[in-house]
Specification:
The protein is an alpha/beta fold and 390 residues long. The protein is 40% helix and 16% strand. 53% of the residues are buried. The mean pLDDT is 97. The structure holds FE3-S4 cluster.
C-alpha cells in the first residue's frame, strides 16, 4: 500500500498512518470496525481542503463503514437557514467528493443513534470529540480522537496505528471524581462535564456518585467533559460498561453544588435578548425532538429569534413520521439537519445564543455570540419570548 500498489489515495493514506504511528510509537496497525470523518464543513475546509478531497476521490474507496460529521449546512433546506448559494455550491462539492469515496452521507455527530453502533471492545477511527468520548466510555469501544485526514486515511486502509486509547495500558483511570450533587435538568450534565473537565485536566476520570443516567444525558456529558479539558474516555461507576473492572484511582476530587454553579456562571454571559436558540449539540435524539414538539405545540417563535433543532436527517425522518416536524415548523422552528451551530458559517450573524449545550456555548463564543445555557424548557421559553428569563 505504501509503495502505491493500491493507488494514490491508499498510498497517501498509508503515508499519513505510518507518520502517525512513528510519532506515537505504534508497533502495529489494528483493523477498525468503522470510521467517522470530521472536517466536512466547507467553512472549515476552504478551497485547499476541497482540493485535497477531490485528489483522494479520484481513486479512493473506503474499506469500512464510514460516516461524516456535520457539514456547514442542511444539505436539503440550506436556504431556510440563511446559507448563501455560493457557500452551498462549495459545500455540495465537498459532499460529492465524499460520496465518490463510498462514504455514507449521514452528517451527524451521533452516528451511534443512526445505525453506526460499535461493539464493546471494537477498534474505531472516529473524529468528533463527543462521539469519540461516547464510543470509548458509554459503548466501551476503542478510538483515539482522529483528525479529519487521519480518519479518512483509516477508512481507505481499513486500519489505524495501534497507540493511545487502543491499548489497555492507556485506558486506566487516573483520577476518582466523587459527584456529590443532584443533576436535575439536561444542561446540568453539561455543567458537570465542565466542572470535571476543568478538574480532571486531561486525565481519565473514574466517576462515582451518579445513580442513573439517560442516553441524552450521557450524550450531553460526553460533549462537555472533553470540550472543557478531560481525555475522551471516562468511567462512571454503575453506568458505563467497563467501570467495574477498573482500579479506583487514589487521587480524588469532589464535585459539589458550588462547582455546578461555577460552571453555569462561567458558561453564561450577561445577555437577555436571544437571537438564536439551538438545541441538539450533540445532535438531537428522537426523544429530544419529541420533547421540543410537546413544549412548542400551539406557540410561536418570537419575530426576532430563530429556533433551530439540530439533528441527523435520519432522526428528522422519524420526526416527520411521528408529526413532531409539523408541530415544530408550525410554531416557526427550523430543522438544521446535517449541520450544527458550530460548523455552520454563523460568525457575526447572531449576537446571542440560548442552548442546552455546554459545548455549544464554547464554540458559539468563538462565533462571537453571547451564550446562555439551560434546560429544554428554558430554551423553548427563550425562543417564544425572545428573552432569557433568569
Ligand atoms: Fe455535534 Fe456540532 Fe455539538 S458536531 S457535538 S452539534 S458542536
Amino acid at each position: 500500500m505504501l509503495d502505491g500498489a493500491e493507488g494514490y489515495a491508499v498510498k497517501k493514506s498509508m503515508e499519513i498512518l505510518v507518520a502517525l504511528g512513528d510519532i506515537y510509537g505504534a508497533q502495529d496497525l489494528v483493523k477498525v470496525g468503522s470510521v467517522q470523518v470530521s472536517g466536512v464543513s466547507y467553512h472549515n475546509l476552504g478551497d485547499a481542503g476541497l482540493e485535497f478531497l477531490n485528489e483522494l476521490a479520484k481513486d479512493g474507496k473506503v474499506k469500512v463503514l464510514t460516516t461524516l460529521n456535520p457539514a456547514g449546512m442542511d444539505l436539503e433546506s440550506w436556504q431556510q437557514l440563511g446559507i448563501s448559494p455560493e457557500f452551498a455550491e462549495k459545500q455540495n462539492l465537498v459532499i460529492d467528493a465524499f460520496q465518490r469515496m463510498g462514504i455514507l452521507v449521514s452528517c451527524t455527530c451521533t452516528p451511534y443513534l443512526i445505525g453506526n453502533l460499535p461493539l464493546y471492545g471494537e477498534h474505531l477511527a472516529w473524529s468528533e470529540s463527543s462521539a469519540v468520548t461516547f464510543a470509548n466510555s458509554v459503548l466501551g469501544a476503542r478510538t483515539n480522537r482522529e483528525g479529519g485526514p487521519s480518519a479518512l486515511a483509516a477508512a481507505f486502509v481499513g486500519k489505524t496505528p495501534c497507540y493511545g486509547l487502543h491499548l489497555d495500558e492507556n485506558r486506566l483511570p487516573d483520577v476518582r471524581v466523587k459527584v456529590e450533587c443532584d443533576l436535575v435538568k439536561l444542561s446540568d450534565w453539561g455543567a458537570l462535564g465542565y466542572a470535571i473537565g476543568k478538574k480532571a485536566e486531561n486525565k481519565i476520570s473514574y466517576i462515582t456518585g451518579i445513580k442513573t443516567a439517560e442516553l441524552d444525558e450521557l450524550k450531553s456529558f460526553c460533549a462537555s467533559v472533553v470540550t472543557y479539558g478531560a481525555k475522551p474516555l471516562f468511567y462512571m461507576k454503575g453506568i458505563t460498561p467497563a467501570a467495574e473492572q477498573q482500579p479506583e484511582p487514589k487521587e480524588t476530587v469532589t464535585i459539589g453544588p458550588a462547582d455546578i454553579k461555577n460552571a453555569y456562571d462561567n458558561i453564561n454571559d450577561q445577555v437577555s435578548d436571544i437571537e438564536l436558540v439551538c438545541v441538539g449539540c450533540p445532535h438531537c435524539s428522537i426523544n429530544e425532538i419529541e420533547k421540543v414538539a410537546v413544549l412548542l405545540k400551539g406557540k410561536k417563535v418570537a419575530d426576532n429569534t430563530e429556533f433551530w433543532v439540530a439533528t441527523s436527517r435520519t432522526a428528522k425522518q422519524l420526526a416527520d413520521r411521528r408529526g413532531y416536524t409539523q408541530t415544530i415548523e408550525a410554531a416557526g422552528g427550523k430543522f438544521a439537519c446535517d449541520t450544527c451551530m458550530a460548523v455552520a458559517p454563523l460568525k457575526g450573524r447572531f449576537k446571542s445564543l440560548a442552548t442546552t449545550s455546554a459545548k455549544g456555548c464554547f464554540y458559539s463564543r468563538q462565533n462571537l455570540m453571547k451564550t446562555k445555557m439551560g434546560s429544554v424548557e428554558e430554551c423553548v421559553d427563550a425562543a417564544v419570548t425572545g428573552k432569557w428569563s433568569n
